[in-house]
Write a structure and sequence with these properties.
The complex is a heterodimer of chains A (about 450) and B (about 300). Chain A is about 45% helix and about 15% strand. The termini of chain A are far apart. In chain A, the strands form three sheets. In chain A, strands 3, 6, 7, 8, 9 and 10 form a six-stranded mixed beta sheet that branches. In chain A, strands 1-2 form a two-stranded parallel sheet. A two-stranded antiparallel sheet of chain A has the order 4-5. The longest helix of chain A is centred in the N-terminal third of the chain and has 23 residues. Chain A is of the alpha+beta class. Chain A folds into two domains: about 220 residues, Periplasmic binding protein-like II (D-Maltodextrin-Binding Protein, domain 2, 3-Layer(aba) Sandwich); about 200 residues, D-Maltodextrin-Binding Protein, domain 2 (3-Layer(aba) Sandwich). Chain A is globular. Chain A is built from 19 helices and ten strands. Chain B has about 300 residues and is mostly helical. In chain B, about 75% of the residues lie in helices and about 5% in strands. Chain B is built from twelve helices and two strands, in the order αββααααααααααα. In chain B, helix 2 packs across helix 12, helix 7 crosses helix 9 and helix 11 runs antiparallel to helix 12. The chains are: A alpha+beta (about 450), B mainly alpha (about 300). At the A-B interface, helix 4 and helix 18 of A face loops of B.
Chain lengths: ~450, ~300
């Protein structure tokens, strides 16, 4: 009894102590020694970053820390960051696409969160609560080899956006549940009179490898690599998925291999196509009357299911502190990352056009009701695959190979089988050169 | 004695006049070239190498393993490199003659007497494509050749009732980038050739006109010798530029669809700044440099003639 009493007393004391620390902690107080520090980060020209830019004055006013950002096109971001890190440049924060995480972590360019929490204990928000992030996001965007490096910042899931009116006129009151329905039931009825049922952004680059190619691997039960890390595109399931993608071309606008994100989103926004599968981040473009003609007819659903389930596209960025920054900048950068991804700022971030990775944000039903993309997105995050695209350092090389041969398959320069064989051969060469097959390197993921 | 002194003074003066230019050339031209040659003999995967200071405060030292000629061997075994190189030569032999012929036609028109005001306007207008930034030319190409909203397809559909996918079809995409290249650089050829035509002595040209009314005979026998130095310069400069043509193509097609428009410079950029294999990319760049130099020598030997 006395033991129980002592334990209870100790528990209450520690809780009170914890509470008082939590109450005592404030951003202004923590940032006192960092006033005047300038931190540097790369942003993209996308809604999540525009939301952050709107929120920045508050952070700068409260902390006195200056956040210098440079807006760079996505395609040049990795190049710019890798060159900066290799040359020991001045970036204080790394913007980490989930497929760059392995490369950045293994090259020692980003600092683990554990290390930051230890080094800057007084800067760490007691309400940081890593468990509040969707586990899939924290795992896929920020964690490499069981170490957390970055906090999910700009979070996407693939969604099915559709034109309710076009579907209604074709006799459908809801979007397709499966890819098979999309092709065989919805496709024929929606493809007529110069309009098309579907558009799949497939331009050469990451758009082809991620948005187009990989989207037809996982839902068919396939994978890029098998359990032994050997290329797997010649497996029956992979081939079935890639053959299916070819069949989709008859319900898509001609020249689909030249469609990037903007072309696909515009095609839906202008009423040229009835459905697209796109990132959640494009909701604000499609819901804005300035950029979309279908604001009132916009419907959003999770991506259709394949024979092996939904397994939608997963993408997004985390923010991490760079190792090259000095301690003062590291501290300031850590404060900024905590603040911009915090529970406290999550709703404001969403209201300004961003997509928060915090679970607590979406527990408020009234708030969720205002943003129709949230429910399908949260559902997708519950069924997503962290390895939708491999995250090991060699992915950028594999992505280039897939982008080249994936577009060749789509425009008929090669067959699915020949293209798959070629990709498999080249992927194996890259992985062999990286040392995965001679035991020099442990198999990633 | 006085001759020797004047020679010495002249040499010293020349040295001080030339030294800054030579120093700048060494710093911005020769040093990076030697560095690239050094890198091409190493296994230089950028994310995996680390800088370990500078030798004599100048030469950067990295922990990249030496691979001797392995990078050179591997690029010649790589089908994609050979394809990109062949594609670039195909582009060169299509585009360069078009630019030369069209440029010559414009130059001859400008050289004809009369319409002085129109010719002045034309000369100014010819500078505009050349002065346009490459990125802007690429964007213009992307907009003009857009299948749905492009001006070209608008006009095409009025006549032929169809809308070709210029940038999505492999052959049409190659054709589209060729058109933009010819559009941008034909004026350069026209201006160089026009200035060469002004070198032809007036009395010789007039005498030739009295001999024959056939313009091609005048061109072949009288004007061509004066045009050859200009043609050689055009061949050398345009060949070098086409071998490194990047911005316009990257913006218009990113080398796609598939690899239909992946010219050698896009390929090298992909290896160097996507895969970050600087060793192989440097070896490819050195091979390109050798090709460009050999072609220049070839042009000088077989095209250039002293007047």
């Amino acid at each position: 009894m006395s033991k129980l009493f002592c334990t209870l007393c100790a528990g209450i004391t520690f809780s009170c102590l914890g509470l008082s620390v939590a109450e005592a902690w404030s951003l202004e107080e923590a940032a006192k020694d960092y006033k005047g520090t300038e931190i540097k980060v790369i942003f993209l020209d996308r809604p999540g970053y525009r939301a952050t830019i709107k929120m920045l004055p508050e952070f700068e006013q409260k902390t006195g820390i200056k956040v210098a950002y440079e807006i760079v096109p996505y395609e040049s971001t990795r190049e710019k960051e890798v060159l900066d890190f290799s040359a020991q440049g001045d970036l204080t924060i790394a913007l980490v696409d989930l497929v760059w995480l392995g490369e950045f972590a293994e090259s020692g360019w980003i600092v683990p969160i554990d290390e930051l929490q230890k080094k800057f204990a007084n800067l760490t928000d007691p309400d940081l609560d890593l468990n509040d992030f969707f586990p899939l996001l924290l795992n896929a965007f920020g964690t490499w080899n069981n170490t957390v490096y970055g906090l999910p910042f700009d979070n996407y899931s693939g969604l099915l956006y559709y034109n309710k009116e076009m579907l209604k006129q074709a006799g459908f009151d809801k979007p397709p549940e499966t890819w098979d329905d999309l092709l065989n039931v919805y496709g024929p009825k929606l493809t007529k009179g110069g309009k098309y049922a579907f558009a799949l952004q497939s331009r050469r680059g990451e758009t082809q490898s991620c948005d187009s190619f990989m989207r037809f691997i996982w839902p068919w039960g396939g994978s890029l690599l098998d359990a032994k890390f050997k290329p797997n595109l010649m497996s029956a399931k992979d081939q079935e998925g890639l053959d299916f993608r070819q069949k989709l071309e008859k319900i898509m606008p001609p020249g689909i291999v030249d469609f990037d994100h903007n072309e696909a989103v515009n095609a839906l926004a202008q009423g040229q196509v009835a459905m697209i599968t796109e990132w959640s981040a494009f909701y604000s473009t499609l819901a804005d009357p300035k950029t979309s003609k279908i604001v009132n007819d916009l419907g959003i659903a999770p991506e259709p299911k394949g024979p092996d389930g939904r397994k939608p596209a997963l993408g997004g960025f985390s923010l991490a502190v760079t190792t090259q920054a000095d301690d003062k900048k590291k501290g300031a950068a850590w404060l900024f990352i905590e603040w911009v991804t915090s529970k406290a700022k999550a709703k404001e971030y969403v209201e300004n056009g961003g997509v928060s990775g915090r679970q607590s944000t979406y527990q408020d039903k009234d708030f969720v009701a205002k943003y129709p993309f949230v429910s399908p997105m949260v559902e997708s995050w519950k069924q997503g695959v962290p390895e939708f695209r491999p995250r090991f350092p060699e992915w950028p090389q594999l992505s280039e190979i897939i982008a080249e041969w994936g577009t060749k398959m789509m425009d008929g320069q090669t067959t699915v089988k020949q293209g798959s064989e070629e990709i498999d051969k080249r992927v194996q060469d890259v992985l062999k050169k990286a040392g995965y097959y001679d035991g020099k390197k442990t198999l990633a993921q | 004695m006085s001759v020797d002194k004047s020679k010495r003074t002249y040499s010293t003066g020349a040295f001080f006049f030339l030294a800054p230019a030579v120093a700048v050339l060494l710093a911005v031209g020769i040093f990076p070239l030697i560095f690239a040659v050094g890198v091409s003999f190493h296994q230089f995967l950028l994310p995996k190498v680390h800088w370990h200071g500078n030798f004599l405060g100048v030469w950067p030292i990295y922990d990249a393993p030496l691979s001797w000629f392995q990078n050179y061997i591997s690029i010649f075994q790589d089908d994609s490199f050979r394809d990109a190189l062949s594609r670039t030569f195909l582009f060169l032999i299509i585009v360069l003659p078009c630019e030369l012929v069209l440029g010559l036609a414009i130059a001859l028109l400008l050289h004809k007497p009369g319409n002085e005001l129109l010719k002045k306007i034309c000369r100014v207008a010819l500078v505009i494509p050349m002065a346009t930034t490459f990125a802007v030319v690429g964007l213009m190409g992307r907009l003009m050749f857009d299948a749905n909203y492009g001006i070209l397809n608008y006009l095409w559909s009025l006549i032929f009732r169809s809308r070709p996918n210029w940038l999505a079809d492999p052959n049409l995409a190659f054709f589209s980038i060729s058109i933009m290249e010819v559009w941008q650089w034909t004026p350069f050829c026209a201006l160089v050739l026009f200035s060469s035509l002004t070198m032809v002595p007036l009395e010789i040209e007039e005498a030739a006109k009295l001999e024959t009314a056939k313009w091609w005979q005048i061109l072949w026998r009288v004007q061509l010798p004066f045009l050859l130095p200009g043609i050689t310069a055009i061949l050398i400069l345009r060949t070098a530029d086409i071998l490194k043509l990047f911005d316009v193509v990257y913006i218009m097609t990113k080398g796609g669809p598939g690899s239909a428009t992946e010219l050698i410079s896009l390929f090298v950029q992909r290896i160097g700044f996507r895969a970050f294999d600087q060793g192989i990319a440097s070896a490819q760049a050195i091979v390109l440099l050798i090709i460009a130099t050999l072609l220049s020598r070839f042009y000088i030997k077989f095209v250039y003639k002293e007047i």
